[in-house]
Design brief:
2 copies of one chain form a homodimer. With about 400 residues, chain A is α/β, with parallel strands linked by helices. The first copy, chain A, is built from 12 helices and 15 strands. Chain A binds a DNA duplex (30 and 30 nucleotides) through helix 1 and helix 3.
DNA sequence: CAACATGGTTGAGTTGTCATACCAATTATC
DNA sequence: GATAATTGGTATGACAACTCAACCATGTTG
């Protein structure tokens, strides 16, 4: 609980400061690092030498000078090592392999649920092994090899314990998945909720310290970054905003309650709106992964039922997002998941609702779309951040003022 | 942005570790501190000597031994200095003076809004000066004197900038109150939302790192503590959960929207429920500060309209709290404000609703009542924490692993 | 009263940063 | 083209703060 600081802690801390600065900047020099960190030039030299020795950093030539010796340019070594990220969705699995700078160097999709192989924990485990195996094969040689494996799961999982509590649409409960995978892979293995992975992914690239990532597909979940770290709450189930009530006398939800946001802002809700607009099930293939994009196409073709339904979806997304804004007043909100494919119709609606329902500064909240690969890359990023400390969350730590 | 650590930073850090440990424990010895912090005994001795020199710590005699020299007991010096906390409510102001251990040594209440003096920013400012002046007079002599002044305000205020944005029921907008007060008082002056002060107060005593404090009176607001610090969001307006929608087609709120939680879980809501139960305004003095406690009295006397209304209030409180739980999954929730006076009726209802609506572990969430003085003490505590670092929020800082 | 146990202090040793002087390399100036 | 000025990077000693180990100080136990 109480931690002491000695000389070696001090050095580790400073070394990570230098490393994380190098991670964020394309090219820098020793003197530039010294100026930005406040560390003495001698100290920076010594730390950089160590980092070069460890192959986390490379010298890449000389920079320009304005009357003096040219600086030796330094760069974080993207090839230092690799990380695997897996995004488990209900119908399929996306696996990525990223280098240390989080550039995707390999990507693969596979079906999870097929007629011959319905989903069970065993089936999921087998597919994971298979997919991770493929990614490992695709991993280029590097000084640090594979840093770790991060898995994003759609449901309630506990990052801290590595236990899956409940994956609603996959019918999996109480499963110590990290424990099992760790028997196979010696590297760091971590799991997290898919929205948390997405939120972390966005944080890594955007460096927005307080943000919300909304993953809206079959279900609706939120990932929350507070002060530059994923907020998971006591049991790792923070962000289950899909099961917050937006209508006290609303529709029955799979969770047993009435009026959950998820019942108004998910793919299922979209299908219901379409039915309410007079379409019957056969017309709309609501179980296809392409459901939403087909709806968008139809709306663009001016089929009223579709555009009406999508706008309604946008309204309800906006109401739920506005609620999150009132509670969390973040710096930005990112929307992802299959539903995000309808951004052209949803975003204006969401922005309108937020401008109307939001209080004060929340009216002008930044709402953006995040690409589909965000979650998988975020899963990899969580494993990466677990291995090397390049995402400091200590900027406003008063103790280091 | 990037901070370096040198020997003096290291020492400051360790000194604060020692001080915060002393702050939390009644009595300790140098060796015990050494064991708990991992710091060498020599280092602890040196740090403690400095703290004694600065009069933050006292030696208070000898402890018991089990076969050896008796330890010299150390104690945080409660008399090191004092802090003023002010809780501004719509009808009145509570001012407290606390010692360095947050024990209240002086308390005063005064009317804010009177027939001869309606509330304006000037009026509030005058009353604040008056009340703070009285508290300063009550401040006993001490080595550090007055650490600072903290003011809790009912509305949207920005802790970071010291600006009041909007106090809805006091009709005050855009007011640089800290700036003005700092012209008068040389000490630290800080402001914050009342629920934030309450949340901080609870954190200080309970040391629950992730909690929600709900202040339900005329309005409803939440204070959020994440990772041992108050979470305020981008503009300092996080926690405005009273303006989250719980009913999309609900009642019109003062904020202009429909279905805000505040319209179902505040004193005003209680008054409405009573009216809906057939009571007319004259019977229920809804503008008295004693409104809620009188309602409780009547409910205890088995007047059905009152017990029904209070139960309804409890249900809606429960719905809104459940929403916060799904989103934040905290470790505990504390309820305060005038409405909390009906705890005997509300708490069972709230717990029932949460058990019903909460997902997974949220069902068993700890819900407690916090006393009315919490907010004022928290305001003082914020100013205290601003002056001396005894509430470290760095326990799981990976950098110091 | 000796043996042992525990709390606290002292002084040497270690680690790591800082300041300063210095070398290296390049541009500007005479 | 030689020299001065400028900027980047390195080596060395001073300094600060922590650790370690030995040593007092003061107990309790047999």
């Amino acid at each position: 609980m109480y931690k002491s600081v000695d000389a070696s802690t001090m050095r580790r801390f400073n070394k990570q400061t230098v490393l994380s600065l190098l991670y964020q900047q394309e090219q820098t020099s020793r003197v530039a690092i010294s100026e930005q960190t406040g560390l003495n030039r001698a100290t920076v030299s010594s730390l950089v030498d160590e980092l070069i020795e460890e192959q986390f950093v490379e010298e890449t030539g000389l920079g320009v000078s304005s009357g003096g010796r040219k600086p030796i340019l330094l760069r974080f070594n993207a090839n230092a090592g690799y990380t695997i990220g897996v995004d488990v969705q209900i119908t399929h699995i996306t696996t990525v392999l990223t280098d240390a700078m989080r550039t995707v160097v390999y990507e693969n999709q596979c079906q999870l649920h097929t007629r011959t192989h319905p989903v069970t924990a065993e089936r999921l485990f087998d597919v994971l092994k298979e997919e991770i195996g493929l990614a490992i094969k695709a991993c280029p040689p590097s000084p640090h090899g594979l840093f770790g494996i991060g898995i994003a799961l759609p449901g309630m999982v506990n990052y801290a314990t590595g236990h899956v509590s409940y994956l609603p649409n996959l019918n999996i409960t109480e499963w110590p998945i990290v424990e099992q995978l760790s028997l196979i892979y010696p590297q760091t293995v971590i799991i997290d909720n898919d929205a948390n992975c997405g939120a972390w992914s966005v944080y890594m690239t955007e460096r927005i310290k307080n943000l919300i990532f909304i993953n809206a597909g079959i279900g609706v979940g939120a990932g929350i970054v507070v002060n530059g770290r994923v907020y998971r709450g006591r049991n790792g189930i923070a962000g289950e905003a899909g099961h917050a009530t937006i209508s006290t006398i609303g529709i029955l939800c799979s969770c047993g309650n009435y009026g959950c946001w998820e019942q108004y802002a998910s793919e299922q809700a979209l299908a219901r709106y379409l039915r309410e607009q007079g379409l019957d099930r056969n017309q709309m293939d609501e179980f296809s992964p392409l459901f939403v994009s087909r709806c968008v196409r139809k709306a663009q073709d001016n089929v009223q039922a579709y555009s009406n339904s999508l706008r309604l979806l946008g309204d309800y997304l906006g109401i739920g997002i506005a609620n999150l804004l009132q509670i969390l007043n973040p710096e930005a909100v990112f929307l992802s998941g299959t539903v995000a494919e309808a951004e052209s119709i949803l975003l204006p609606e969401i922005r309108r609702v937020i401008h109307h329902r939001g209080i004060s500064k929340n009216k002008e909240m930044l709402i953006k779309i995040a690409p589909q690969s965000t979650v998988a890359v975020g899963a990899a990023g969580l494993a990466l951040a677990h291995s090397i400390d390049i995402f400091p969350s200590r900027e406003d730590n008063e103790l280091l003022s």
